[in-house]
Design brief:
The complex is a heterodimer of chains A (262) and B (329). By secondary structure, chain A is α/β, with parallel strands linked by helices. Chain A has a single domain, classed as 3-Layer(aba) Sandwich (Rossmann fold), CATH 3.40.50. Chain A has helices at residues 42-49, 72-78, 94-99, 112-121, 137-150, 167-182, 194-200, 218-221, 224-231; strands at residues 2-13, 16-27, 31-36, 57-62, 65-66, 79-82, 155-159, 186-190, 203-208, 211-216, 233-240, 243-251. In chain A, a hairpin with a 2-residue loop joins strand 11 (233-240) and strand 12. The longest helix of chain A is centred in the middle third of the chain and has 16 residues, at 167-182. Chain A is globular and about 60 Å long. Helix content of chain B is 75%, strand content 0%. Chain B has helices at residues 6-22, 31-39, 43-78, 90-104, 113-133, 139-162, 167-178, 186-204, 207-213, 217-222, 227-249, 255-263, 271-296, 305-328. The longest helix of chain B has 36 residues, at 43-78. Chain B is globular. The chains are: A alpha/beta (262), B mainly alpha (329). The A-B interface holds A 47, 50-52, 71-77, 79-81, 83, 85, 87-93, 96-97, 100-101, 103-104, 107, 129, 131, 144, 147, 151 and B 1, 79, 208, 211-216, 218-219, 221-226, 264, 268-271.
C-alpha cells in the first residue's frame, strides 16, 4: 500500500525551479534511498513531502489523501521527519527530547510505552536522563531518530541521518531504519553513502538538477552511466552477499566540468 | 533536572515580597496599625495602603511577570538566550509613544494619555516589524526587522530630546524613560492589568509550540506546529503584555533577560515549563527591586527602578555568563 506519493511535482522558489516532474512513491515496508549530488533537490523533495514547501504543480498524497487537506496534527501523527543536522537548542534530557515525538498526539497523550520503545530501539535507555547537548554526535543522531520513531508514524522521512557519523553508527542507524521498514513503516532516507544505500535500501531514487534521473533497484540506479551523469564519478564494484556495492573511486576522466546547482 | 519544589517556593517568595512591598514606605507606620487602620476605614492608613502601596505592589507583580514571561517566550521563539522584550521593538515603540506624548503635551490632556500613547507606540512598532518581516519569513528576518525598528525608535527618541522645547520637558521625558512605579494609582492598574493578563494568556498558551521549536523550525513543523501562527501569537502576546507594562512603568531593563536565565535550570531547559516560572521570577525580581528602591532611599529623589534593575542586572548577568562558561569548560 502506498503510504506517501507525489506525481508531477514541481517546486519553484523565487522563479528558480528546484524540482520538476517528480513521480515517486514509498510503500509500507519499503526503505527507499534518495541519492544525488549536493543541490540535486533531495532535501527540497522531503520539505515538499512534509508540507513545508508548497508545490507549484503536481500532487502529494499521504495515505491516499491529498497532503494539503490534512490538519497539521493529523499529518504529523502519520508522517515523521528527521531533519538534517540534529538540531537541539535547549538542554532537555534525552527522554524529554524523544518525548517531543508525542506532541502531535495532543496534551492528553499518555503513551509512555511509545517513548520507552523508541529509546530501546535506538539503544538509548541507559542515556535517558542525560542532557541532550552533552551527547556525542552519534548519540545525538540516535536520539533524534528515536524522537521521530516515538511519533509512531506510518511514514518516516530521514534527511541525511548518517552525516558526520562513524561507521558503527552509520550501520546502526541503517539497520534500525531497515528494521522499521521490516515492521511495516514506509521509510525514505536521503543518503550520500552509495555502498550503504546499495546494501540497505530496497529501492533508490536518483535526483539530478531537480529532476528524477532514475529509479529502481540499487544495481539499476547505481549503474556506471548513471554515476557518471549524476556525480561525474566512476565506481569500483564489489559483490558481497549477493548484492553489488559500488565504491566511488575516481572522477570520470575528461568529464566536462559539472555545473553546480547550489 | 527539574525541581518540583520550585514553583511553590517561588510563589511563597513572591507572597512575602508582595507583603513587604505593602508594608514598606516612607511613612513610619507598623504593619498592624496600617492594616487595622485601613480595614476599619481610617482615612490615612487607607490612603497609604489602598491608594498608594497596593497599586504600586500590583504593578510590580504585573509588570515584572509581563517582562519575565515575554523574555522567556521571545527566547523560546528565537531560540536564543539573549533575546529579550526589547529585541523586536516592543519596548522601543512604547517608549517612543510615551516620549512623543510628553513632548507634545498630549500626556497632560487627560489622565491616561501617557500609557495610552505608549501602548499605541508598541502597536505601531509591532505592525511595522510585521510588515517588514512578513508572515512567512524566518527568525533572522524577524530579528533584523525588530532591530531596525528598535534603532529607529531610539533615534526618534533622541530627536525628540534634541528638539525638546525646555529643560522641564526634557527632564520629564528623561525621568519617564528611567522607569519607575512610584506614585501610580489604581487607574494605572486598571489600564495595564487587562492587557497584561490577555498578553500573558496568549503567551502561556505557546508552550507546546515553543517546546517543539527546541528541535528547529523544520522539525517543529513536522510535529504539527503552525509556525506562522506561533510567531504571530508570541508577537501579539508580547506587544500586549510589554506594551501595557512599559506604558505605566517606563523602560525597565534586564528583568526580561535575567528571569528566564535564572529559571532555565529549574525548568530543565524546557521552554514550556520556563514560561510560568519566568513570569513568577520576573514578578519577584521587580518587586524586590522596587522594595530595594524604597529601602535605599534616604534623602533627595528616589532612585529610579529602571536604573536599579540595570545597575544590578548587568553585573549579575555578567556573573551568570562567567559561571556558565566555567561550567562549560
Amino acid at each position: 500500500m502506498t503510504a506517501i506519493a507525489c506525481s508531477g511535482l514541481r517546486i519553484e522558489l523565487r522563479d528558480r525551479v528546484l524540482l520538476d516532474n517528480i513521480d515517486f512513491a514509498v510503500r509500507r515496508g519499503e526503505l527507499i534511498g534518495i541519492v544525488g549530488a549536493n543541490g540535486a533537490g533531495k532535501s527540497t523533495l522531503f520539505k515538499a513531502l512534509i508540507g513545508l514547501l508548497a508545490p507549484t504543480a503536481g500532487q502529494i498524497t499521504l495515505a491516499g489523501q491529498a497532503l494539503r487537506t490534512f490538519a497539521p496534527e493529523r499529518r504529523a501523527r502519520l508522517l515523521a521527519y528527521l531533519a538534517q543536522g540534529h538540531v537541539a537548542h535547549w538542554p532537555l534530557s534525552v527522554r524529554e527530547t524523544v518525548a517531543l515525538g508525542r506532541l502531535p498526539h495532543g496534551p492528553g497523550d499518555r503513551n509512555t510505552a511509545a517513548i520507552d520503545d523508541a529509546l530501546e530501539a535506538a539503544d538509548l535507555s541507559h542515556l535517558a536522563g542525560r542532557n541532550v547537548l552533552s551527547l556525542s554526535g552519534g548519540e545525538r543522531a540516535r536520539t533524534m531518530l528515536a524522537r521521530a520513531l516515538a511519533v509512531g508514524p506510518a511514514v518516516l522521512l530521514a534527511d541525511e541521518p548518517l552525516a558526520a557519523l562513524d561507521p558503527a553508527h552509520q550501520l546502526r542507524i541503517m539497520a534500525l531504519l531497515r528494521a522499521q521498514a521490516g515492521a511495516g513503516m514506509a521509510v525514505g532516507v536521503v543518503l550520500h553513502d552509495l555502498p550503504l544505500a546499495a546494501r540497505f535500501c530496497t529501492r533508490l531514487v536518483l535526483l539530478h538538477e531537480g529532476r528524477m534521473l532514475a529509479t529502481g533497484t540499487p544495481s539499476e540506479v547505481l549503474s556506471d552511466t548513471m554515476l557518471t551523469q549524476a556525480f561525474g564519478i566512476c565506481a569500483a564494484r564489489f559483490q558481497l552477499e549477493g548484492s553489488e556495492l559500488p565504491l566511488p573511486w575516481q572522477l570520470t576522466p575528461q568529464a566536462p566540468q559539472r555545473r553546480s546547482t547550489m | 533536572m527539574t525541581c518540583r519544589l520550585a514553583p511553590p517556593a517561588l510563589f511563597g517568595l513572591l507572597l512575602s515580597l508582595a507583603a513587604s512591598s505593602l508594608f514598606t514606605g516612607y511613612v513610619d507606620m507598623s504593619p498592624q496599625h496600617l492594616l487595622h487602620g485601613a480595614l476599619s476605614g481610617e482615612p490615612i492608613p487607607q490612603r497609604i495602603l489602598i491608594d498608594i502601596r497596593l497599586p504600586r505592589t500590583i504593578l510590580c507583580l504585573a509588570v515584572g511577570s509581563a517582562l519575565g514571561l515575554t523574555g522567556a517566550a521571545m527566547q523560546g521563539l528565537l531560540r536564543n538566550p539573549l533575546a529579550e522584550p526589547g529585541l523586536l521593538g516592543v519596548s522601543g515603540g512604547a517608549a517612543l509613544g510615551a516620549v512623543l506624548a510628553l513632548y507634545t503635551g498630549f500626556a497632560d490632556t487627560f489622565y491616561l494619555a501617557l500609557p495610552l500613547a505608549g501602548f499605541t507606540g508598541t502597536a505601531i512598532a509591532i505592525g511595522v516589524v510585521f510588515a517588514l518581516a512578513g508572515r512567512r519569513t524566518g527568525t533572522t528576518t524577524l530579528i533584523l526587522a525588530g532591530v531596525a525598528v528598535s534603532s529607529l525608535c531610539g533615534a526618534l527618541i533622541s530627536l525628540v530630546l534634541n528638539w525638546s522645547p525646555n529643560p522641564t520637558a526634557l527632564s520629564e521625558i528623561v525621568f519617564w524613560m528611567l522607569g519607575s512605579l512610584a506614585d501610580r494609582s489604581s487607574h494605572d492598574v486598571e489600564l495595564a492589568l487587562p492587557f497584561i493578563a490577555l498578553g500573558a494568556l496568549l503567551l502561556l498558551g505557546c508552550g507546546r509550540g515553543l517546546r517543539a521549536l527546541t528541535l528547529g523550525e523544520e522539525t517543529a513543523h513536522s510535529l504539527g506546529v503552525d509556525l506562522a501562527r506561533l510567531r504571530v501569537r508570541v508577537l501579539i502576546g508580547s506587544a500586549l503584555a510589554v506594551g501595557a507594562a512599559v506604558s505605566v512603568s517606563g523602560s525597565i531593563g534586564f528583568i526580561g533577560l535575567v528571569a528566564p536565565h535564572l529559571m532555565r535550570p529549574l525548568a530543565g531547559g524546557d521552554p514550556a515549563r520556563l514560561l510560568p516560572l519566568s513570569a513568577l521570577a520576573g514578578a519577584a525580581l521587580l518587586t524586590a527591586a522596587d522594595l530595594a528602591v524604597r529601602l535605599l532611599h534616604n534623602t533627595g529623589p528616589e532612585l529610579k527602578l529602571g536604573v536599579l534593575t540595570a545597575l544590578v542586572g548587568a553585573p549579575f548577568f555578567l556573573a551568570l555568563i562567567l559561571r556558565t562558561r566555567q561550567e562549560a569548560a
